[in-house]
Each structure stands twice: as structure tokens, then as C-alpha cells.
Write a structure and sequence with these properties.
Layout: H1 2-16, H2 29-48, E1 52-61, E2 71-75, E3 80-85, E4 116-126, E5 129-136, H3 144-147, E6 150-153, E7 174-175, H4 177-189, E8 193-199
Length: 200
């Protein structure tokens, strides 16, 4: 009986030390194809642009439902996803078909998510705590600073995948508190700016 309790204790302790980054992203062939296409664009951009990380990139696939992991931390050197999490899209991006068909806009006050590549800038303390300013690098998102589109967390964003849709933002990529902590470590330990690509 004592051996049984020791075995049970060991098995329970293994759950408490489980690292979320050990989870492997399970993407469909189509999702993987979209991801690889945007990874190639990032590699092409960073190879000719000094100041951007050639090691790490963040990618968000807005075709994936908001209750599923669709924010990916990508290792550009080893060509693999090393972390993933949930991320909200803007309430203005809803079209009435909940989460299935989204629209996107760069217009101020649209509350929409804007597609394109972003440069992740310095952090500041805002309404939701620590947040990172984003500069839009494309015509589709070049109003990001004017619109105050930032990478931030919100306590109502869950850590784990859900069968339903999560809440919406005002256009910002909004993640859970725990996921932002992991992203912050990556951003602040990088010797160059990290790119975020949001696509559909």
C-alpha cells in the first residue's frame, strides 16, 4: 500500500511540473501551409532589415477560432513552434456569423483587428497592466500607433483552449496573463525587435 501512495505522489508531482511549452501545436495541413508562407515572408524581411530578430517571430492565424490556440511563438532557426496560446480579435471584426467569418480594418474607431506585420516595441504600463506598443509595417495596419493597438493581457482570457469563442478586444491582440508573462520573457531577452504577423 505504501508503494502505491509513493507512486501516486510521484505521478501527481509530474503534473505540477508540466510545462505548457511542452505541448506541440496540432495544425491542419492548410493551417501549416499558411503559417509556413508567413514564416517565409518574415525570414525574407528580417534577412534584409537590420534590427529585427532572425531567431524568434510571433504569428497569429485569424482563420483559427478564438477558442483555439492561434498565437504562435516560432523559432526561426529551428523551424518549429515553441509556444502557443489564445488571443482575442477585435469586436469590430465580427460579421454576425460568430467567429466564422471575420472582417478587418485599419480605420480608427473601427474596433477591428488589422492584418499585417507589426514591430513589437517597448513596454509601458497601461489600463490592463504591462503592454507592448505595436508599429504596423504594412498599409493594412499602419494606423496601429494612432489606434493605440498594443499587445496586452486581460484576466478574462483563458489559458487553456475552449470549445467556445472567447471574448473580443477593441482591436488589440489580447492574451491571457500567463501567456503574456511568457511572451514578455522572450521579448525582453531578445537583442533585436520581434516581428508579429497577423494573417487570415
Amino acid at each position: 500500500m505504501r508503494i502505491f501512495f509513493i507512486a501516486l505522489l510521484l505521478s501527481l508531482s509530474s503534473f505540477t511540473t508540466y510545462n505548457i511549452t511542452d505541448k506541440r501545436a496540432i495544425l491542419t495541413e492548410l493551417e501549416l501551409s499558411r503559417l509556413n508562407e508567413h514564416v517565409s515572408e518574415i525570414k525574407s524581411f528580417t534577412s534584409s532589415s537590420n534590427g529585427y530578430s532572425k531567431k524568434i517571430a510571433f504569428l497569429v492565424d485569424m482563420k483559427i477560432k478564438s477558442g483555439k490556440n492561434r498565437f504562435f511563438v516560432y523559432d526561426l532557426e529551428n523551424n518549429q513552434i515553441i509556444d502557443q496560446g489564445l488571443v482575442a480579435h477585435g469586436s469590430g471584426s465580427e460579421t454576425g456569423i460568430k467567429g466564422d467569418i471575420l472582417q478587418f480594418s485599419n480605420a480608427p474607431n473601427s474596433n477591428c483587428t488589422a492584418l499585417g506585420r507589426y514591430s513589437i516595441e517597448k513596454s509601458y504600463k497601461g489600463v490592463f497592466g504591462k503592454a507592448f506598443r505595436l508599429i504596423g509595417l504594412d498599409q493594412t495596419n499602419n494606423n496601429a500607433l494612432k489606434r493605440a493597438i498594443v499587445l496586452h493581457c486581460y484576466k478574462e482570457v483563458p489559458d487553456e483552449e475552449k470549445e467556445y469563442y472567447i471574448l473580443n478586444s477593441h482591436g488589440c491582440p489580447m492574451v491571457s496573463e500567463n501567456f503574456l508573462k511568457r511572451l514578455t520573457k522572450i521579448i525582453e531577452s531578445s537583442d533585436s525587435k520581434i516581428m508579429l504577423s497577423v494573417y487570415y
